[in-house]
Design goal:
Layout: H1 7-13, H2 24-34, H3 47-55, H4 58-72, H5 76-107, E1 114-119, E2 122-127, E3 136-139, E4 148-160, H6 162-165, E5 171-172, E6 191-192, E7 197-209, H7 215-223, H8 232-262, H9 267-281, H10 285-303, E8 306-308, H11 311-316, E9 322-325, H12 327-331, E10 337-343, E11 346-350, E12 361-362, H13 373-384, E13 389-393, E14 396-400, H14 403-413, H15 419-425, E15 430-435, E16 440-447, E17 450-457, H16 459-464, E18 466-471, E19 474-477, H17 480-495, E20 499-508, H18 517-520, E21 524-533, H19 540-549, E22 553-557, H20 562-572, E23 581-583, H21 592-598, E24 604-606, H22 610-622, E25 627-631, H23 637-642, E26 645-649, H24 655-660, E27 663-665, H25 670-710, H26 719-729, H27 731-737, H28 761-789, H29 794-815, H30 823-826, H31 832-850, H32 852-858, H33 867-889
Helix pairs in contact: 3-5, 4-5, 4-9, 5-10, 8-9, 8-25, 9-25, 9-26, 10-25, 13-14, 19-25, 21-22, 25-27, 25-28, 25-29, 27-31, 28-29, 28-33, 29-31, 29-33, 31-32
Length: 890
């Protein structure tokens, strides 16, 4: 709270000397007491924690139990394979998370590597991490503020605090201001915050807080208390695991009891069949396939400029129902751009956005203006009366200095009016710097042998100081009507959320007079106005539209001003009326229940605090929404942490925001979020497909064995055959289903209900029906083998079951590719990976059947003409599945 009270009180509190700073000895003691001026991330997981998270997964626990049972029943091979799956799955997950962490680390940049301070009475450069409370810091244009500080001096000082407050325009600072009451962060004009950027002027500050005690540090610390939530996929897999665990126990008991009464097997053999079937009921490959598919999705997203730090977050994006987005730098470019010019009584449109000097100037008829003396003069004034620089690096334009002045330079460059050339030909002779009281800046130059004062500033002030204006290139009296017209245009531009700047000049006979505002800045010649805004990203409008088409709401939550936020939101299609917007301060006295109602209709929240952002994200979550929160500033971090999926910008994002987020956009592109949402939807759809595939195969296996024993038949499959089916034959098609291309119209569907089970609705119906179809086909093959083809060979009958089951399951993989579209509509060969996987799995069947050593191990025989009934019966489930799609649709 060091922004409150008198400056002398703050200096006394920190026991410092504004002129000499601290002594080295005192600074050393304070460094020991307060620690280094750094914010250490608490989000980094240890290797042990990562391993524990992998082992604690319910599906993994189920597999480990299955492995232990296998070991106790003497099947060491099965036990070894299951344990290998668990270990490989854990290693893959840890490697993927490690890669994401490395990518994030590569994006991290030191916020403020050095600071100029006064110690022992002299200036010196020091690493920012060595600053302590009580240090006196020199502040210059372009500096990054290294710690929180009360200002000791300020001269035309302006600081960009967008990373903390979300406000895109630099804030004017005044060290002389005193506050006795609490004020918001964005209104503390006598204070400078760590990681903000000095865009104009200079000053001096007294460090009052470092490290975790800064405003940024407090936000980072508050994040540690936010518990991570399970993703929708985690919740569904846990439910599935519990259900499978219950079913496994039931299957074990049922098979054992039925076998005891109906089968001629002894107790031990009966128990072994029950246990092997229970193990068969668990889809051992499921966890591995989920991990691999998520890893593939993670890599695909990285190629599309989105780094996902946690595997399960990939899928969460697919169920997103609301995207809460910061405005500055996320939906907008964070590059002020002049879009309107008013001069000579006319308005002109300026095309282009950002600092790249591209775009034409058009008149009210839409025709390109290639030359205009008054526009050229306005551009000349805006370039000469300017302390910013426009820099081009590798075809990327950026500015140093104030963003408003940067926009002026870009405008001039659009007409090839170059600031460097102007300054070289017409150097600055004198100046009256900008200050927040006058709200103007004037520089003096020689032009065509005459001296001129060029002024820019707040429109109402500049217009009031002008007695003349230009009309058709002639200097005329600035009559009340002409002034009224200019002021009306100013009001009109401001109502469009544009920041308006006025330009004027004054011919000077000589510069002998004393250069002061009182002597110069009156009776000037008014030239015109410009209106500028931080424009929306070109791709953001289409991205918002696609979100709405996908049933995803977009809400703008920003620290910027109401009118600015409303104008941008309307332009992007986020909102259509003022009724959908409100000030963040209006939330402060609302109850949780009231805020939950507010977020159902409001789409813009302006001038919000970090606390307001968290309130809104929590309210949406309480309403059952799956919330993605995007942002780049420190002020966004708490909300990012509380969201179901937190998204940070990679280029403009602060270290705190990146550390907190689940996903980082490398290109800072809002449209990348939509790509990630589509990827998430595709991944979940594919997970549903291979879960349905694996479970339908496993249920069929259980039914086949159970019904055989129930009818008094010998067990149709041996334990090793069941294991081969589960771990080898089913795994490859399941993996191929994991990379199935997106079904048509996937982004035109509403987001799925996060509480909806992986296996529900049509998926459950298909799973059950396909399990029954496969069971009927395989039992038919078993009976044909036992009664007619191999009446005296149980191995022959087992082979008929083994071959028919594998073939029908491989064909089932093609049918499960879609619940709506038939194979003909999808294209049989549209998933080439599935064709390769099917060929590989079928080849493995042939290897087992025709290589003598393996044939004996698996207790099967070689088939010849017997393949004819096997293939006919195997086609039944596929054909019935495709017919059922057509019938359901009709």
């Amino acid at each position: 709270m060091d922004y409150k009270g008198s400056l002398n009180e703050v200096i006394k509190k920190h026991n410092s000397d504004p002129n000499r700073g601290l002594t080295s000895d005192e600074a050393s003691k304070r460094l020991d007491k307060y620690g280094k001026n750094i914010i250490e991330s608490s989000n980094k997981k240890s290797l042990a924690k990562k391993i524990i998270e992998q082992v604690a997964d319910p599906m993994v626990i189920l597999l480990v139990i299955a492995a232990i049972v296998s070991a106790f029943t003497g099947d060491a091979v099965e036990c070894g394979i299951i344990i290998a799956i668990v270990v490989i799955n854990a290693i893959m997950s840890i490697i993927q998370e490690g890669r994401a962490e490395d990518s994030v680390a590569a994006l991290q940049k030191m916020s403020s590597p050095e600071a100029t301070i006064i110690r022992d009475g002299s200036r010196k450069k020091l690493k920012a991490e060595e600053l302590v409370p009580g240090d006196v810091v020199i502040i210059e244009t372009g500096d990054i503020i290294p710690a929180d500080m009360r200002l000791l001096e300020s001269s035309n000082l302006q600081i960009d605090e967008s990373s903390l407050t979300g406000e895109s325009v630099a804030v004017e600072k005044d060290f002389s201001k005193e506050f006795n009451e609490d004020v918001g962060i964005g209104d503390r004009d006598n204070y400078a915050f760590s990681s903000s950027i000095v865009t104009y002027g200079h000053g001096k500050g007294l460090v009052t807080a470092t490290g975790h005690e800064t405003e940024i540090g407090k936000i980072a610390t508050s994040l540690e208390n936010v518990e991570a939530k399970d993703t929708p996929l985690q919740k569904q897999l846990k439910k599935l695991s519990k259900l499978l665990a219950v079913l496994v126990v039931i299957v074990c008991i049922l098979v054992f009891v039925v076998g005891y009464f109906r089968s001629e097997m002894d107790m031990l053999d009966n128990f072994m069949v029950a246990v092997s079937l229970a193990v068969a009921a668990i889809p051992e490959g499921l966890t591995a396939v989920v991990t691999i598919v998520l890893s593939i999705g993670m890599n695909r997203m990285a190629e599309r400029k989105a780094i996902v730090k946690n595997l399960l977050s990939v899928e969460t994006l697919g169920s997103t129902t609301v995207i809460c987005s910061d405005k500055t730098g996320t939906l907008t470019q964070n590059e002020m751009t002049i879009t309107k010019i008013y001069t000579d009584g006319k308005e002109f449109e300026v095309e282009g956005s950002g600092y790249e000097p591209k775009g034409d100037i058009r008149d009210d008829k839409g025709e390109i203006v290639e030359s205009h003396d008054q526009i050229k003069l306005l551009m000349t004034i805006s370039s000469l009366c300017n302390d910013a620089n426009l820099i081009r690096e590798d075809d990327i334009y950026k500015i140093t200095g104030d963003p408003t002045e940067g926009a002026m330079l870009t405008l001039s460059e659009k007409w090839n009016i170059n600031q460097e050339n102007l300054n070289e030909n017409h150097p600055r002779l004198e100046e009256i710097p900008f200050d927040s009281t006058r709200k103007m800046m004037t520089t003096f130059h020689e032009m065509d042998g005459k001296n001129y004062g060029y002024t820019k500033g707040a429109p109402d002030v500049v217009i009031d100081k002008c007695s003349k204006t230009l009309v058709n290139g002639e200097i005329v009296d600035f009559t009340d009507d002409l002034k009224k017209k200019a002021l009306e245009v100013n009001t009109s531009l401001a109502s469009q959320a544009l920041r308006v700047m006025a330009y004027a000049f004054k011919p000077m006979e000589s510069l002998d007079t004393e250069i002061t505002s009182e002597n110069i800045e009156h009776d000037m010649v008014f030239v015109g106005l410009t209106g500028m805004i931080d424009p929306p990203r070109p791709e953001a409008k289409a991205a918002v539209k696609e979100c709405h088409a996908s049933g995803i709401d977009v809400i703008m939550i920003t620290g910027d001003y109401f009118e600015t936020a409303l104008a941008i939101a309307k332009d992007l299609g986020i909102a259509t009326s003022r009724d959908q917007a409100m000030q963040g301060s209006e939330l402060n006295n609302k109850t949780e229940a009231e805020i939950r109602e507010i977020v159902k209709t409001k789409r813009i929240f302006a001038r919000v605090s970090p606390e307001n952002k968290v309130q809104l994200v929590k309210a949406l979550g309480q309403n059952g929404e799956i919330v993605a929160m995007t942002g780049d500033g420190v002020n966004d971090a708490p909300a990012i942490k509380n969201a179901d999926i937190g998204i940070s910008m990679g280029i403009t994002g602060t270290d705190v925001a990146k550390d907190t987020a689940d996903m980082i956009l490398v290109d800072d592109n809002f449209a990348t979020i939509v790509n990630a949402v589509e990827e998430g939807r595709v991944i979940f759809a594919n997970i549903k497909k291979f879960v349905s595939f694996l479970l339908s195969c496993n249920i069929a296996e259980v039914l086949i064995v159970f019904l055989s024993i129930l009818f008094g038949l010998p067990s149709p499959l041996t334990p090793i055959q069941l294991l081969w089916l589960n771990l080898v034959t089913d795994a490859f098609p399941a993996l191929a289903l994991g990379v199935e291309p997106a079904e048509p119209g996937i982004m035109e569907e509403d987001p799925r209900d996060p509480s909806e089970s992986i296996i529900s609705g049509k998926t459950k119906t298909n799973l059950i029906s396909q399990s029954i179809f496969i069971t009927i086909a395989v039992l038919g093959a078993y009976l044909v083998g036992l009664k007619w083809i191999f009446p005296n060979s149980i191995e022959g009958a087992h082979t008929m079951v083994f071959a028919t089951l594998i073939t029908s399951e491989l064909l089932r993989a093609f049918s499960v590719r879609s619940e709506k579209f038939t194979l003909k509509e999808l294209g049989f060969a549209s998933n080439s990976q599935l064709i390769k996987a099917t060929i590989l799995s079928f080849a493995l069947l042939l290897v087992v059947m025709y290589i003598p050593v393996l044939r004996d191990l698996f207790e099967v025989v070689s088939l010849g003409w017997e393949w004819i009934p096997v293939l006919i019966l195997s086609l039944i489930p596929l054909i019935l599945g495709e017919i059922s799609k057509v019938v359901r649709r009709k």
